[in-house]
Design a protein that fits this description.
The protein is built from 1 helix and no strands. The protein has 34 residues and is mainly alpha-helical.
Length: 34
C-alpha cells in the first residue's frame, strides 16, 4: 500500500507540474497575441 501510494503520489506531482507548465505556456501565448 505504501509503495503504491508513493508511486501514485509521484505521478500526481508530475501531472500537476506539467499542468502548471501548460497553463503558464497558454497564458504567455495569449499575451503574445494581445
Amino acid at each position: 500500500m505504501r509503495i503504491d501510494y508513493s508511486i501514485s503520489n509521484e505521478h500526481a506531482e508530475k501531472f500537476i507540474s506539467l499542468l502548471v507548465l501548460g497553463v503558464l505556456y497558454s497564458i504567455e501565448k495569449s499575451n503574445i497575441y494581445r
